[in-house]
């Protein structure tokens, strides 16, 4: 079986590139730049959208919180990605919250401009629909992993995907830089269980651990540990 890419990742960079390539003059008139500090919330679940957001710098998490206060992270969002357009298409309140994992710079574009693109640019709409389908596939695949794979297997999968995510950042130093709490909320386990498994992977020479940072040393070994081969 080919190893599935895209898990825990949110990537629609092609939309942002298309937007600025074709509508740079228009976006300059309607966009506003805001800055978020680490842990600051961009928007909360249940709020109706009034804007679309483009991440210019930093990393954010897409998550929900259950009645017991337990957080579950669906995906991470990196620079040059668009957030919130799917909710505009469906005309519903946000089903998730988004907050900053690092200090972030976000471009805010009002929804009226995006609605005008829905009506006037069929190619842009097709690109949005294609990205929505990819997001749905990733979400479905992730739900399958949470339901059917052990914590060790899920941890191995997360390390493979997070390594791919963080090494593609413009300021990457080759390490996964994510708190243990956020990492455990991606996997769907406790911090204590995650720490034990990371220790095992370190002993097995699959990863290197430097405080909160992790470096993948043996990706094939992690794929084997994940149960995909």
UniProtKB/TrEMBL annotation:
Provide the HTH crp-type domain boundaries.
149-220
Sorted UniProt keywords: DNA-binding, Transcription, Transcription regulation
Domain named Cyclic nucleotide-binding is located at: 15-135
- SUPFAM superfamilies, per the entry: cAMP-binding domain-like, Winged helix' DNA-binding domain
Gene3D superfamilies cross-referenced by the UniProt entry: Jelly Rolls, Winged helix-like DNA-binding domain superfamily/Winged helix DNA-binding domain
Which Pfam families has this protein been placed in?
cNMP_binding, HTH_Crp_2
Record-linked PANTHER family: CRP FAMILY TRANSCRIPTIONAL REGULATORY PROTEIN, CYCLIC AMP-BINDING REGULATORY PROTEIN
Q: What is this protein called?
A: Crp/Fnr family transcriptional regulator
**From which lineage does this chain's organism come?**
Bacteria, Pseudomonadati, Bacteroidota, Flavobacteriia, Flavobacteriales
